[in-house]
Amino acid sequence: MKKTIKKKQKQVSRKQLEAQKRQTDILLIAEKVFQESGFSATKAEEIARQANISVGTIYNTFGNKEKLYAKVLEKIGNELVDQVSSINRKYGPAKAFEKIIALRLSNYRRQGLFLMPFSMGYVNNDKLSSSNILEHPRDLYYKYIDLISKIIEKGINMGFFEPVNSLAAAIGFEGILNSFVNYWLAPDNPQQQEWNLNEIKKAVMEVLRLKRHDSFVDSQKSMHSILNREVFITKYDYLRLKELLDVAQMFNTGKHQSSLEHLTKALNEGKIVNSDEVPDDVITMNSKLQLTNMENGETNIIRLVFPSDITSSDDAVSILTPLGSVLLGQWKNSTVKVEEEGCIKKYNIEDILYQPESAGDFHL
User: Fold this and answer.
1) What is the Rg, in whole angstroms, of the alpha carbon atoms belonging to the chain?
2) How far, rounded to the nearest angstrom, does the alpha carbon of residue 84 sit from its chain's CA centroid?
3) How would you class 9 by CB atoms within 10 Å of its CB: exposed for 0-12, middle for 13-18, buried for 19 or more?
């Protein structure tokens, strides 16, 4: 009797595994066909032909084409929500947006299949007449938007983003990003291969005014905003610089007094953040930047480094020099004043060409 029960259990288990595999195989083929033809033009017969099964198998497994479509969207939506949740756990808000934009650009066709019905209204509404067909995928879409909203809210609380309605900004972020994806990566767009992640990221953030750039106000207000931005310092830099300060002050002969005071002030008043949370347009240790002397217009490219990393063959500037000490934590497009050779000099930070944290080099 027990042998008979075990045999039946094995048979049931094998049938369940076969059914799961058949369902997975059909979903993979259906996703491909829906991407190529869209919901309306897709026929169950074509999915069956490509899956090498009968149409009856599709109906027996999923019920009808609408339910199969909903299952495809559900599968993609679950994966997208999981990926964005993982990004939110691993990264700070500024870096998280970069990762999400990169994710959307690299999976634009697949994720677009899931997002399109909710971003642009139901596809062929008369064919999807049942109000609950897309209920679960719709819930996943709301969950995705809510995750974006929470990232924005976190960024607002940390001072990275301007105070806005986080939910409205999340919906705007998705809509604008979707427009970029559709334009830049359209199959017939001659510029398809020319898109640049950083440029798209900056454009999306600028339009939503999530980053602390005042591009839409007059230059005087913009400069005031830039000059009053917080100084961001990574925890990793902070610990190393505190140690450097302790040593430098112990052996201080007065040579670096002004620099030590600037650096002490920055460390005491700066906003200390994790390496993956620092905005990518902030100067951190080992950053390479383009600097313009505002008196003579001369432009130089320099690196901000620790004294031990100074060499005669490069353009490194020590953190213990007057210029180096005031650059730490400053933003792109900001202006700094430095006392050099008995006079005050003004420099504009034109661009940050390399920042270790945004490049993923967290331990430089």
Assistant:
1) 28
2) 10
3) exposed
Confidence band (pLDDT; 50, 70, 90) for 221? very low
Between CA 179 and CA 220 the distance in angstroms is: 32
How would you label 71-97 residue by residue, b for 16+ Cβ within 10 Å and e otherwise?
A: bbbbbbbeebbebbeebbeebbbbbbb
Q: Measured in Å, how far apart are the chain's first and last C-alpha atoms?
A: 69
pLDDT at 335: 85
Residue ranges of E strands in the chain: 232-234, 271-273, 288-293, 299-305, 316-318, 335-340, 343-354
pTM tops 0.70: no
Q: Contact 81/147 with Cβ under 8 angstroms?
A: yes
Closest CA to 30 of 42, 19, 17: 42
Residues forming a β-bridge with 75? none
Q: What is the mean pLDDT of the chain?
A: 79
Q: What is the pLDDT of residue 22?
A: 82
% pLDDT > 90, the chain:
14
What proportion of the chain, given as a percentage, has pLDDT over 70? 78
Q: What is the mean pLDDT of residues 58-65?
A: 88
Q: How far apart are CA 57 and CA 301, in angstroms?
A: 66
In which region does residue 347 sit, left (phi positive, over 0), alpha (psi from -120 to 50) or beta (all else)? beta
pLDDT band at 147 (very low <50, low <70, confident <90, very high): very high
CB-based burial label for 218 (10 Å; 0-12, 13-18, 19+): exposed
Alpha carbon distance 193, 191 (integer Å): 6
Alpha-helical runs (H) found in 158-196: 166-184
Cα separations in angstroms, 316 against 285, 300, 308, 311, 364: 11, 11, 11, 7, 14
Classify residue 65 by its DSSP letter.
H
